[in-house]
Fold Leucine-rich repeat-containing N-terminal plant-type domain-containing protein.
Amino acid sequence: MDLKLKLRPSFFFYFLIYIFLLQKADLGSAFNPKCISTERKALLTFKQSLTDPSGRLSSWSGPDCCNWRGVLCDDRTSHVIKIDLRNPNQTLKIFEYHDDHKEGSLGGKIHPSLTRLKFLSYLDLSSNDFNFTEIPEFIGQIVTLRYLNLSFSSFSGEVPVSLGNLSKLETLDLNAQSFIDNDEAPTSFTLRASNVGWLSGLSSSLTYLNMGYVSLSGISETCLQDFSRLSNLKELYLFNCELKNLPLSLPSSANLKLLEVLDMSQNSFSSPIPNWIFDLTSLRKLFFQFANLKGSIPSGFKNLKLLETLDLSNNLELTGEIPALFGDLPQLKYLDLSVNYFEGQIHRFLEAFSKNKGNILVYLNLNHNHLNGTLPESLGTLRNLQILDLSLNSFTGSIPSSVGNMVSLKKLDLSYNSMDGEIDSSLGKLEELVDLNLMANRWEGVLLKPHFVKLRSLKSFLLTTEPNRSLVINLPSTWVPPFRLEKINIENCQMGPLFPMWLQVQNKLNSVTLRNNGIADKLPNSWLSGIASDVTELILANNRIKGTLPQNLVFPKLNTIDLSSNNIEGPFPLWTTTAVDIYLHQNNFSGPLPLNIDVLMPRVRRLYLFDNTFIGEIPSSLCEATRLNILDIRNNRFSGSFPKCWHESSELYYIDASENNISGEIPESLCDLPDLTLLHLNQNAFEGNIPKLYPNCVHIEHIDFSGNNLNGKIPTEIFDSSFLRILNLSRNSIEGSIPQVNWKFGHLETLDLSRNRLSGAIPQSLVAMSFLQTLNLSYNKLEGRIPKNLKFKDPSIYIGNELLCGKPLPKKC
Ligand SMILES: *[C@@H]1O[C@H](CO)[C@@H](O)[C@H](O)[C@H]1NC(C)=O
Ligand SMILES: *[C@@H]1O[C@H](CO)[C@@H](O)[C@H](O)[C@H]1NC(C)=O
Ligand SMILES: *[C@@H]1O[C@H](CO)[C@@H](O)[C@H](O)[C@H]1NC(C)=O
Ligand SMILES: *[C@@H]1O[C@H](CO)[C@@H](O)[C@H](O)[C@H]1NC(C)=O
Ligand SMILES: *[C@@H]1O[C@H](CO)[C@@H](O)[C@H](O)[C@H]1NC(C)=O
Ligand SMILES: *[C@@H]1O[C@H](CO)[C@@H](O)[C@H](O)[C@H]1NC(C)=O
Ligand SMILES: *[C@@H]1O[C@H](CO)[C@@H](O)[C@H](O)[C@H]1NC(C)=O
Ligand SMILES: *[C@@H]1O[C@H](CO)[C@@H](O)[C@H](O)[C@H]1NC(C)=O
Ligand SMILES: *[C@@H]1O[C@H](CO)[C@@H](O)[C@H](O)[C@H]1NC(C)=O
Ligand SMILES: *[C@@H]1O[C@H](CO)[C@@H](O)[C@H](O)[C@H]1NC(C)=O
């Protein structure tokens, strides 16, 4: 009863509000602001001088300009108060070129009719493309403006001083970064300000100023004074402004007490961190990365009690210890000191955070410094930390067990240190961890199930140790881990001999590197076919993987496949793959190569098949694999003749087919390969003449035809190339004399003609070969005196020529 009485009045109350709202809606439409016709005309004139390829201003035609897209009128007075023509398709991927952005861009001329909008307080023309025209001077006449955004719009020239007349302006964004691709954009800075005295006109209104990428190189050394008098300023962005002088103090007139954000990054100051920064006690964010700052971190930072973000990265020369004072800054969330020269230990620094129990640090990047010592247990007090990057330092020891308390951690990077202890199992508690990089250290010990047990978010797991350390990964064969990895890189660990079960259930992998981990098992077919569609890297080299490979898989995204140095047998895998690098060498593959190898592997650049037992002919379809650079099929059992179909569009520069059983003539079409520099066909069964490789094959630097059945004479043209450095024709049946040519121009370093049937005298002109370091003429039928000035004194290079005489041989002439 009592309850009802209470309810009723409130019901009526809400009903009344409902009625009121209905009426309000009616009234609203009745009093819809009607556009003022002079302003409508001004807007139309403004529109007409713009270019608008994507039709963004197509709504700018009806009578009521207050309904036009991007136009806002005052409810009461109907005056246009806001124009927002920011390109909606802005992508902040500044270094990429996006057609989408260009599509949505307005361009052309900004018409002075804008000055007729006497109540305009907000103008946003950002992210458009004004094709490097100047910012119009008359913008300074729209004195009602409070917000002006001309950023990312490809303006150039001098920033007009007339902006100093905008005495109500609160926000000025002139950020001159450009979306336009580099071919079109002028290479130097496009927008510049050689004088910023006009800022004084804005000194009591401006709260936000962005002049990023505006060249200030022309302004005087005291320019910062002009900025420092903006007494209401909360955010100041002067990144990449070609500033060179950072004053060590500011004048007493400086008044930046309200400044919350200061970005002076990407300038080249060559100076220490100045002390006036520490008077800016309202600072929340300070950016000084890539600023060429030097020296150590001043204690003054302790004054900046509100500091949330500090980026001093990439100054290279900031040095000294990382001070403990950061631990006392109660608001600090983001600290980036990476790529500097900080040294010593981080114990005291972290200790300070552990005393400050309420620390809210989220991001800590100390990568690429000279820090050393062990990682202290106090690390565990960073309970809010999400990103921790300590890579590329000289830390030693093991991972402290307190790491398990860093419950917010998403990314942990300890790579490229000298950590030589164990990896603590408390790591396995980090449920949020996505990215774990433990590469390039000297880990040892055993990783067991607890190390991984709760890592349900893990996507990337990188772990390498040195080959002479013992790091074992030993997980129960029936255990299904809670993570599905996308990237795995484990090297020099012991995770065999069986192909681990926990790995077999990883079916989302796109990058796999498992090198030298003692896996002595077959590759599980279901695993391989499961990841085939997404995998880009498949590197399983230096294990003892055995068995045959499944056939007919399709790898549509593969770049690199490396199965080298295993015990894989059976035929060449008939895989259709986009791989560029294919390493199958040092296995026990057998059988012939597929005839359509160019179709199966249309993008292959490097094909390494050496040290296997492939048989049959080398398929001539390799001539059509026009991207092929390197073909190494040495030490197999290929036979038959060598393909003759080589042609100009091939990029082959390295052919090693030595140690096979290839017969027939060496095809002269090899010289149609424009880039060929190395040709090793030694230890085969080639016969016939030495091909006349020159003058076509001008780039061959290394020729090895030794150990074949070649006969006939040495073609003199072979020495015409100034590129030839190594020529080995030994162990053939070559006849005739050593050609008398002008050796002076050659760069031959090694010439081996031993074990042939060469006759006649050693030509005197050989003396002129200044680059020659190795010569062997032994076991031929050469005769006469060894030229006196020939520098080679080892008799073994002349022996076996019975009619040869003179030093260094004992036989006198
Ligand atoms: C913005 O880009 C999308 C495609 O990403 C396109 O459909 C749309 O038309 C673009 N808008 C403008 C205004 O150009
Ligand atoms: C100015 O416009 C750009 C994008 O066009 C935007 O990212 C930026 O935040 C704007 N500046 C201000 C101060 O609103
Ligand atoms: C941009 O300006 C250049 C001259 O500075 C001109 O050649 C070019 O046609 C202009 N591009 C557009 C799209 O207006
Ligand atoms: C600022 O406005 C005044 C008064 O309208 C004018 O005389 C002066 O030329 C303007 N200054 C600039 C730099 O445009
Ligand atoms: C750590 O670095 C400091 C400063 O470079 C050096 O003096 C110290 O010897 C190093 N300690 C070790 C154990 O390498
Ligand atoms: C272990 O191997 C690394 C290189 O991988 C080498 O620098 C180090 O000296 C080796 N240590 C021992 C004890 O052999
Ligand atoms: C290589 O495979 C052949 C059979 O194709 C086999 O006879 C030989 O033992 C294998 N060699 C090795 C080292 O596994
Ligand atoms: C080399 O090939 C020839 C046929 O071209 C064959 O008769 C011979 O047995 C092969 N030699 C070896 C060692 O395989
Ligand atoms: C030339 O090739 C043979 C093998 O066919 C090799 O024994 C010899 O060392 C090579 N000569 C030089 C100078 O490398
Ligand atoms: C020259 O060749 C012969 C026969 O191949 C070899 O025995 C001798 O060691 C070679 N001399 C040098 C210096 O390599």
In short: The domain at 38-149 is CATH 3.80.10.10 (Leucine-rich repeat, LRR (right-handed beta-alpha superhelix)).
